C-alpha cells in the first residue's frame, strides 16, 4: 500500500528522514505531497521573496522526483482536509512528515495525527529540521528549558555532533503515484497574489549542495576556514549563504553539520579550526531560537521578558518609512536596508546594526521591524527572525545583548566596513564620498559635498536623529519600563 510523504519545510530528497522511512515502509510507493496552505500564504507575515523561493524549490523538487520516475502532487487548501482527500483517493496506509516546532504547525500536525489514528492509519513524524529537538535539551538539574544561549550551546555540542553520523540517503527506488492522481500545477507568484520587487537567489537541492560544497572548499578564498573574521565583513561573501536553503530544507542541517565535523578531523591551524567551530555555533543559534519559541510561544507576539512590553515606543511612521527605504542618513543602516530591499537578504552584522538602530535610535517597536524583515527576507524564519529582533531589543531575558549595550552605528560602520565598500555598493549616491567621510557624510564640508556631487539634504538625507541623543533617550525609555515593572 502506498504511503504519503507530506513535504513542508524540507524540500529535498537526500537525508530526508520522513521520506526515507516512507520509502522503506512502502517499497518506494511514496506519494510525495505539498499543500499550499492559505493560512500561511495570506497571514500578512510572509512576503513575496520567501514565497517565490519556495515555488522555485517546489519546481526543483518536482524535477528531481521526475528524474527518479515519480512526481510531486500539489494541492491547495486546508492541510487536514487535503490530506483526508488524498488518503481516500490513494488508499494510502498513512502519512509521514518531519516535525515543525512552531505553534501553528504543532496544532495543525496534531489535528492530522489525531484524525489518522482515529482512522486506524499510520501517522509518523520525524526529528529532522534541527540538530537537537526542543524537548531534547533541558537544564541538567531542574530539567527546565534553556534561556541563556551560552549555557545552551555547551550542552548542545555534546548532543548535536553525533547527528553527523545519522544521515540517510535519498530513496533508491520510487514507484510513481497513480497517473490519474490529480495534482495542481505549481502556481506562479502572481497566481497567489504576490508581486516580487527583489532579486532572489537560485535555489533547489542541487544548488544548495553546491553552495555547501563551495563554502567547504578549502581552495576558496573565503571558505569556512576564514569564517571567524570574514563573517564580520559585510562587503565580502564570507558566510555560507545557506540560510535560504536551511529555511525551506533544500539542504539538511545534518549535511551541514557533517561537512563541519569531517573538516575538524583534518589537520587545521588554530584560525581554521576556529572558523569551523564558530560556524557550528551559528547552527546552534538556529536550534536555540527554535527551542526558545517552542517553550515560550508567546514570544511570537511579545517580549520573552514581558517587562519590555511596557516600553513606550515613539513609533513615528515617517521615520519607520525612512528606515524601510534606507533613507535614515546613516550609511551602514541604509546600505543594509537597501540590500534587503534589492536582494531579499541582508548580512548578519548589518541585520544587527539595522535592528538596533530602529529599536534604540528611533525607538520603534521591534515587532514593526521584525514584521518588515519577514516580509522582505527570502530566508525569513519566524524563530531566527524573532530571536534576532529580541536579541537586538535586549528583551530576551538574560540576553547576550543587554538593553544598555547600544550599538553606535558610526563605530560599527567604521569597524566592519572600514573603506565603505559595502556602503558604496548599496548607496550609490555616496560612491564618490571620500573614505574619511563615508561613515558620517553629514560632516563633509559644503565644498566637498559639492565637489563629490553629494549634497546632504538633497542627494542623501541628513541623519534622522543624532546618535548620542537617541542613545540617552532609549536608555531612559528602557529604564522607565523596567523600573515601573520590577
Ligand atoms: C534582526 C535579525 C533577524 C534575523 N532574521 C533571520 C531570519 O529570518 N532567518 C534566518 O535564517 N536568520 C536570521 N537571522 C540570523 C542571521 O542573520 C542569518 O541566519 C544569516 O545572516 C544568514 O546568512 P548565512 O546563511 O550566510 O549565515 P552563516 O553565517 O553561514 O550561518 C550558517 C547558518 O546558521 C544559521 N544562523 C546563523 N546565524 C544565526 C542566528 N543569529 N540565528 C539563527 N540562526 C542563525 C542560519 O541558518 C545560517 O544559514 C537574523 C539575525 C538578526 C540579527
Describe this structure in words.
- The protein has three domains: 3-129, 3-Layer(aba) Sandwich (Rossmann fold); 130-167 and 205-295, Alpha Horseshoe (Serine Threonine Protein Phosphatase 5, Tetratricopeptide repeat), CATH 1.25.40.80; 306-484, Orthogonal Bundle (DNA Cyclobutane Dipyrimidine Photolyase, subunit A, domain 3), CATH 1.10.579.10.
- The chain is built from 20 helices and five strands.
- It has helices spanning 17-26, 38-41, 48-67, 79-90, 103-118, 149-160, 205-215, 227-230, 243-248, 253-264, 270-295, 317-325, 331-343, 348-361, 366-376, 382-393, 409-416, 421-426, 446-452, 467-484; strands at 3-7, 30-36, 73-76, 94-98, 122-126.
- It has a five-stranded parallel beta sheet with strand order 3-2-1-4-5, sandwiched between helices.
- 48% of the residues lie in helices and 5% in strands.
- With 486 residues, the chain is mainly alpha-helical.
- The longest helix is centred in the middle third of the chain and has 26 residues, at 270-295.
- The site of flavin-adenine dinucleotide has 28 residues, from helix 9, helix 11, helix 14 and helix 16.
Question: What is the gist of this entry?
Answer:
The chain has 486 residues and is mainly alpha-helical. It contains 20 helices and five strands.
Amino acid at each position: 500500500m502506498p504511503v504519503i510523504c507530506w513535504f513542508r519545510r524540507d524540500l529535498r530528497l537526500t537525508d530526508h528522514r520522513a521520506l526515507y522511512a516512507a520509502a522503506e515502509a512502502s517499497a518506494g510507493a511514496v506519494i510525495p505531497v505539498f499543500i499550499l496552505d492559505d493560512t500561511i500564504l495570506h497571514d500578512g507575515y510572509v512576503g513575496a521573496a520567501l514565497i517565490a523561493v519556495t515555488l522555485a524549490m517546489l519546481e526543483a523538487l518536482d524535477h528531481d522526483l521526475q528524474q527518479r520516475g515519480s512526481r510531486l502532487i500539489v494541492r491547495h487548501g486546508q492541510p487536514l482536509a487535503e490530506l483526508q482527500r488524498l488518503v481516500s483517493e490513494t488508499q494510502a496506509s498513512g502519512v509521514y512528515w518531519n516535525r515543525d516546532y512552531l505553534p501553528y504547525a504543532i496544532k495543525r500536525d496534531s489535528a492530522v495525527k489525531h484524525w489518522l489514528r482515529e482512522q486506524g492509519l499510520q501517522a509518523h513524524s520525524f526529528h529532522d529540521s534541527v540538530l537537537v529537538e526542543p524537548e531534547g535539551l533541558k537544564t541538567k538539574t531542574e530539567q527546565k528549558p534553556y534561556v541563556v544561549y551560552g549555557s545552551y550551546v555547551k550542552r548542545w555540542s555534546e548532543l548535536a555532533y553525533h547527528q553527523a553520523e545519522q544521515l540517510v540517503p535519498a530513496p533508491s527506488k520510487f514507484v510513481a503515484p497513480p497517473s490519474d492522481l490529480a495534482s495542481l500545477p505549481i502556481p506562479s507568484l502572481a497566481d497567489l497574489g504576490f508581486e516580487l520587487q527583489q532579486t532572489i537567489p537560485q535555489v533547489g537541492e542541487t544548488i544548495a549542495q553546491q553552495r555547501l560544497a563551495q563554502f567547504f572548499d578549502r581552495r576558496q578564498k573565503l571558505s569556512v576556514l576564514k569564517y571567524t573574521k570574514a563573517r564580520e565583513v559585510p562587503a565580502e561573501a564570507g558566510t555560507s549563504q545557506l540560510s535560504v536553503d536551511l529555511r525551506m530544507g533544500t539542504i539538511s542541517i545534518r549535511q551541514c553539520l557533517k561537512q563541519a565535523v569531517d573538516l575538524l578531523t583534518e589537520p587545521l591551524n588554530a584560525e581554521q579550526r576556529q572558523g569551523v567551530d564558530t560556524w557550528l555555533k551559528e547552527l546552534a543559534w538556529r536550534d536555540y531560537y527554535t527551542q526558545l519559541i517552542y517553550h515560550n510561544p508567546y514570544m511570537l507576539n511579545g517580549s520573552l521578558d514581558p517587562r519590555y512590553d511596557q516600553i513606550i515606543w515613539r513609533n513615528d511612521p515617517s521615520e519607520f518609512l525612512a528606515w524601510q527605504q534606507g533613507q535614515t542618513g546613516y550609511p551602514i543602516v541604509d546600505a543594509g536596508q537597501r540590500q534587503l530591499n534589492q536582494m531579499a537578504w541582508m548580512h548578519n552584522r548589518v541585520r544587527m546594526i539595522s535592528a538596533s538602530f530602529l529599536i534604540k535610535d528611533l525607538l520603534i517597536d521591534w515587532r514593526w521591524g521584525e514584521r518588515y524583515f519577514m516580509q522582505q527576507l527570502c530566508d525569513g524564519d519566524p524563530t531566527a527572525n524573532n530571536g534576532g529582533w529580541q536579541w537586538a531589543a535586549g528583551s530576551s531575558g538574560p540576553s547576550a545583548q543587554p538593553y544598555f549595550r547600544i550599538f553606535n552605528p558610526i563605530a560599527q560602520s567604521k569597524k566592519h566596513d572600514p573603506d565603505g565598500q559595502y556602503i558604496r555598493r548599496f548607496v550609490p549616491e555616496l560612491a564618490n564620498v571620500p573614505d574619511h567621510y563615508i561613515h558620517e557624510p553629514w560632516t563633509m564640508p559644503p565644498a566637498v559635498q559639492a565637489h563629490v556631487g553629494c549634497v546632504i539634504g538633497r542627494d542623501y538625507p541628513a541623519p534622522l536623529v543624532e546618535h548620542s541623543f537617541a542613545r540617552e533617550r532609549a536608555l531612559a525609555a528602557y529604564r522607565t519600563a523596567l523600573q515601573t515593572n520590577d
